[in-house]
TrEMBL record:
Source species: Streptomyces viridiviolaceus
UniProt family annotation: Belongs to the DyP-type peroxidase family.
Protein name: Deferrochelatase
Cofactor section: heme b
Compartment annotation: Cell envelope
Reactions this protein catalyses: heme b + 2 H(+) = protoporphyrin IX + Fe(2+)
Function: Involved in the recovery of exogenous heme iron. Extracts iron from heme while preserving the protoporphyrin ring intact.
Gene label: efeB
Length: 432
């Protein structure tokens, strides 16, 4: 399990406003919901708004949204949203299989519906006349909806020749205890938002839009720390209590795009994957009862970092470069040879890097009171054979953390580039 989170965090003081699909400010736009929220005092009427006016006409409609509710991510863009977007407080992952008899035509119609629904919801608008009103009083809350295609999708749609080589099934790993019913799938959807009702609203809308074309194969729910919950922006903690996500690649790094996104030209990938990415999804159960029996010092030795602040055991602060050669007075390595943070470092894996953007999960307790909790591990890379696979193989050979986790579900999906104005996600594949 690689260190899973994005260092960026929003604070209540952060200026509200739309974000493009790569997380950059796009203040020139204004959502219909935000406009309606300030329209009450002027009597503004939007002639074609229809249900949208009724949707936003709550008694408090004239009250400005908070920074949290007003956060908006743009649907259209070079890349799909939800890849470099700062981590959100709530998430849903859902995989679908195309229904019997459904093929390329039905898949294209479905992606067209899904894209339109995602665009509306991410702008803070209702889905249409059939909207459930679940998020009636909320703003967009940084909602993102991301779509991907699994290996089996290309067989179902007769598009095998367009299937990328990078989408070949992942190899088996010794830590795998995979439930096939909760792995893979024809289609994959990631939903994230900073409000639980907004996230559920999107999940329900996507599921309803599937209609008779596709059925849910599996669905998982996750969470992260809410924006503004800490006194200052900081790297998130996982359910083991560890600061988790230090040294995650960041937009703006010199080699970020080439590691995370498929180039628009000169690539071995098919043309429809230009500006897209590959996502590995793993449901990783944390054996918390065993972990919590360790002393803090023992936990730190497993990870290779201090639990209090995420600093490497070799000294310094969280962002200090880890000294892998430093020894103590007895001549022992300060950062153990099998420490998780040592093994997952890019410079220990031929430069392999990926953006880890996970959610924690808790699905209750088993009959013995053991928590079913852990990490919905989500990592993005331009090629999983150069990102996830070499790191996981090395973890398989001796990661100290492996005895405290279990990989219970897995999926690999091709996530095409963002849709341009007037397009739907996957259009270049399905209509090319």
């Amino acid at each position: 399990m690689a260190d899973p989170s994005i260092p960026q965090a929003r604070t209540p003081e952060a200026p509200p406003g739309p974000l493009d699909s790569e997380g950059a400010s796009a203040r020139e736009g204004i959502s219909r919901r935000r406009l309606l929220g300030t329209a009450g005092a002027t009597g503004l009427v939007l002639g074609a708004a229809g249900g949208a006016v009724g949707y936003a006409a709550a008694p408090s409609a004239a009250t400005p949204l908070t920074a949290l509710g007003d956060g908006q991510v743009m649907f259209h863009g070079k890349h799909q949203p939800g890849i470099t977007t700062p981590m959100q407080a709530r998430g849903h992952l859902v995989a679908f299989d195309l229904a019997a008899g459904a093929g390329r035509k039905e898949a294209a119609a479905l992606l067209r519906r899904w894209s339109d629904t995602a665009r509306r919801l991410m702008a803070g608008e209702p889905t249409g006349s059939g909207d459930t009103d679940v998020a009636r009083d909320a703003g967009p809350s940084s909602l993102t909806v991301t779509f991907g295609f699994g290996h089996s999708f290309f067989v179902r749609t007769g598009l095998e020749k367009q299937r990328p080589v990078a989408l070949d099934p992942l190899p088996d790993f010794s830590s795998d205890h995979l439930d096939k019913a909760r792995s893979n799938g024809d289609l994959w959807v990631q939903i994230g938002a900073d409000d639980a009702l907004v996230a559920f609203h999107a999940l329900r809308a996507i599921q309803k839009d599937a209609g008779s074309a596709a059925r849910v194969r599996w669905q998982m729910n996750g969470f992260n720390r809410s924006p503004g919950a800490t006194a200052h922006p900081m790297t998130a903690r996982n359910l083991m209590g560890q600061v988790d996500g230090t040294r995650n690649p960041k937009p703006g790094d010199a080699d970020f795009d080439e590691r995370i996104f498929v180039p628009s030209s000169g690539s071995k990938d098919p043309a429809w994957m230009a500006n897209g990415s590959y996502v590995v999804v793993r449901r990783i159960r944390m054996l918390l009862d065993d972990w919590e029996q360790l002393s803090v010092k023992a936990q730190e030795a497993v990870i290779g970092r201090r639990k209090s602040d995420g600093a490497p055991l070799s000294g310094g602060t969280e962002t200090t470069e880890m000294d892998l050669e430093k020894t103590d007075a007895a001549g022992n390595l300060v950062v153990p040879i099998n420490a998780h943070a040592r093994i997952t470092r890019p410079d220990q894996n031929g430069g392999a890097a990926m953006v880890r953007r996970p959610f924690s999960y808790h699905d209750g307790f088993d009959a013995d009171g053991v928590p079913d909790a852990g990490l919905l591990f989500i990592c993005w890379q331009a090629d999983p054979l150069r990102g996830f696979v070499p790191v996981q193989r090395k973890l398989d050979r001796g990661d100290a953390l492996s005895q405290f986790i279990r990989h219970e579900a897995s999926g690999l999906f091709a996530v095409p580039g963002g849709a341009a104005e007037g397009e739907y996600v996957g259009q270049r594949l399905l209509e090319g």
